[in-house]
Each structure stands twice: as structure tokens, then as C-alpha cells.
């Protein structure tokens, strides 16, 4: 979960104007948490306290209304939508990382990832994106190798993961769809040598940088291990205390589980 928050904060200052390089400072005064962090914390809190996903996501969004939500999501959170909300965007995948950590069998992870997506991202692509990220996290924390994860995600969700970041980067454009951003975030993890490298690779694509770094970081934390303590200290300086409290409860739940 911390990997997702870290990726969001690091990628926040590059959205729509990504650097197309991995050579950049992780943190500057222009960084901030965005909707990726707000809603990841919301999903974690919903699971930890057995709350409804949709109600909790909406509650957190209303408490942090300027975090950078999409236009349709803003209407949804304010109860202004008159039609069903079935987005195919990557909002379902950016917030799903707690599901991959807090459930202990793959079938449940897939089911809960879908449940977490459905209030806003009920389109098949929206559900698939959430399930792909959550299952990659689950497989990584269970000791799965990169080729195991690549094979499962490819066979289950049909994503093309035989590309490389170097090959994708030159022509890649900003894309908020699950279909056009989730596979690339997973490839950033697959191509990486450590957690921070995966975040740098995701940002270097120059697309939806905060969300793709959040997705890549969430898988990489499960695979490589915790966010380095010195990096976490800086990350926490960008977060409200109530978010840090939820992260603490999340970690305690993992220790008990």
C-alpha cells in the first residue's frame, strides 16, 4: 500500500508533462498526494472496518474534494449522476492495492477487487484493471517470480506484457484507460530492479504519471519489500495524519494476519 502512495506523490508533479527519463528528483515542493492516495486509503479503511466500498470512497472524496478527480467521478461523489457509472478508467486500479494485501487467497482477491471497482468502474475493463493489479500484488507477496506474474496476468487478462518500457516510452501518450495504462504500469514493475526504479520507469513513460507510478509501486513493494525508511519519512511529510493512521492500522492487520 505504501508503494502506491509513494508512486502517487512522486508522479504527481509530472502528470501530462512526464519527463521521458528516469533521471529526476523523487521529491520536490511541487509534489503532493492526489486522488490515487485518497482513494487507496479509503479502500484500506473500508476493508479494515468492514465498511461499504462505495460509501467509504465517496466519504473520503468529499473530505478531500480538490485531489484531482475526473469529471464523472466528481459528479458521482456529489450525487449528481443520473445514469449508472461504469467507467473503464484506471481509477479502479490505482486504489486497489489494499485488496492484494489484506486477503489471503487469489479467488477472494479477485472477488474483492471487483467489489472495490463496481461503485464507479463497473465496465469490464475497469474491473479487469483492478483485478490485474490486485492479483499481481497477491502473487508477488506470496513469493511469485516475475515470469510467474507475467504469465498469470497475460493468460487471465489478455494484457501484452512482452513489451518493454524502452520500447513503449517514445510514442506513449497520456492515457487514463485501464487498457492503456495498467499493462504499462505492470511492465514498469517487470522491467525494474527495485521499488524506486519501478516508480521511475512508470513516470518516465510520460503518461498518467501519478497513477501509473502508484500501480507500479504497489506491485513492487509486494515483490521487493518495504519502502526504504528514509524515503517513507519524506513521503509521510506529504500525508495528512489520518492517512498515516490508516496505514498504521493496515500494517498491524498484516502482522496479525
Account of the protein in words:
This protein has 257 residues and is mainly α. It has one domain (2-251): Orthogonal Bundle (ADP-ribosylglycohydrolase fold). Helix content is 61%, strand content 0%. The chain has 15 helices and no strands. α1 runs antiparallel to α13 (209-224) and α8 (124-141) runs parallel beside α13.
The CATH superfamily appears as ADP-ribosylation/Crystallin J1
Task: Estimate percent helicity.
Answer: 55-70%
CATH fold-type name: ADP-ribosylglycohydrolase fold
**Structure classification:** mainly alpha
Instruction: Give helix and strand order, one letter per element, not per position.
Output: HHHHHHHHHHHHHHH
The average pLDDT value, as a whole number, equals 96
Number of domains: 1
- Span between termini: 16 Å
Globular, elongated, flat, extended or rod-shaped: what is the shape?
A: globular
Record field, number of beta strands: 0
Proportion of residues in β-strands: under 5%
What about the largest sheet? Answer: none
Rg over CA atoms, rounded to whole Å, is 16 Å
Determine and state the CATH class: Mainly Alpha
